[in-house]
Amino acid sequence: ENGIQRPKGYTVSYHANPEMEKMHFGPKHPMKPWRLTLTNKIVLAYGMHEAMDLYIPRAATSQELKDFHREDYIEFLERVTPIDNTWDPESGQYLFNTGDDCPIFDGLYRYCSLYAGASLDAARKLTNLQSDIAINWSGGLHHAKKTEASGFCYINDIVLAILQLLLHHPRVLYIDIDVHHGDGVEQAFWSTDRVMTLSFHKYNRAEFFPGTGALDDTGPLRNDSPGAHHSLNVPLHDGIEDDQYIKLFQDVVWPCVHNYQPTVIVLQCGADSLGGDRLGCFNVNIKAHGACVGFVKKFGLPMLVLGGGGYTARNVAKAWAYETSLCIGAEVHPHLPAHTPYLEHFGNEKTLFPKLDSTNRYENKNNRVYLESVVMGIKEQLRYLQG
Ligand code: ZLS
Ligand code: CA
Ligand code: ZN
């Protein structure tokens, strides 16, 4: 058997704490930490672990979480239990925006500190030059705010990781291919020019969460604010197809890298942008989703690779396992290894690249003219960057 080789000339690190995977948001909740078990099983079944440095990161400390989040919010997360009454009659809301989307479940604080700890560990491996590509599929929870939970996210591990990178890097490019807008990361770095945020997402202000991320939403409006033109958004409609998505991604990301000259890239690989996702509405296949990771890798910059959304677990696991193989530059056989645990879970589609069947397709509402106008809009923003 010809096993998977370590990549030549660079190091990939994989940061995963299996304790995360047993957590439950509740029976009806779409977020299933168990998708991480499935991902890791495929990664191991292919033997990809032979080609990477594996780390089981410690949980982040409350002090580390407070580098971004406000103290009272962290203390709330640390203390709260499912039986507490968190209803605030004064505001008529649950405390810190917890509730249906962000429930309080057993082990919540442990869960948060584990995924944040993994992203911090990954970022530190990049800054101390022990790793060139650091992967944390349990992170990427881009909606969390300084003082509140939002959209299944409690702690913003991405912001914490970027703050770590900023200790050693002058410019960080953040790219987000989750189907939802990366609002929490955008907001955290809204007024600085040391982080450029770029999110691709379904946009419909009234109907699709979180409702922000319009094309003209590009940073503070005052031209003398450093953050002006450093928040970029690619708003999309339902049903975008593989070739369109890949071309759009390349047409936007290349000029961003060329103009901004980042020294490190953080890539949030939310898998709810895949076709057939329980919450998503695109027609993107795993190969095309992976092509975005492959394209970013080719810039040869240090890279932090994170997870995010993804609600059809079998597809999430295949996409992230495939993207792990791209990071290590390994060719993997499309057929899942026969000894993959939970193989029965994948039904008839025992391949990494299941076909998106017609019943799961969304009508494509993105035409060429629209996508060209989006690329133009982005390039217009980038023109402001040349001092
Ligand atoms: O980007 O659309 C909303 C907000 C609501 C509708 C849903 N109700 C529960 C609250 C009010 C306007 N929330 C979205 C959040 C999507 C977060 C995406 C996270 C990420 O992928 C990064 C990890 C939303 N969409 C779908 C649901 N919530 C949702 C669906 C089904 C359920 C079950 C559990 C809870 C209540 C019933 C729930 C939420
Ligand atoms: Ca996004
Ligand atoms: Zn999402």
Can you characterise this structure?
An 8-stranded parallel beta sheet has the order 2-1-5-10-9-6-7-8, sandwiched between helices. The chain has a two-stranded antiparallel ribbon with strand order 3-4. It has a single domain (12-383), classed as Arginase, Chain A, CATH 3.40.800.20. It has helices at residues 35-45, 62-65, 71-79, 108-127, 157-166, 183-188, 242-260, 286-297, 313-328, 368-383, and strands at 12-15, 53-55, 87-88, 93-94, 133-136, 172-176, 195-202, 231-236, 264-268, 303-306. The relative contact order is 0.14. A hairpin with a 4-residue loop joins β3 (87-88) and β4. α7 runs parallel beside α8 (286-297) and α7 (242-260) packs parallel to α10 (368-383). The chain is α/β, with parallel strands linked by helices and 387 residues long. Helices cover 32% and strands 11% of the residues. The chain has 10 helices and 10 strands. The longest helix is centred in the N-terminal third of the chain and has 20 residues, at 108-127. Residues 178-180, 270, 272, 308-309 line the site of zinc ion. The site of calcium ion has 9 residues, from β7.
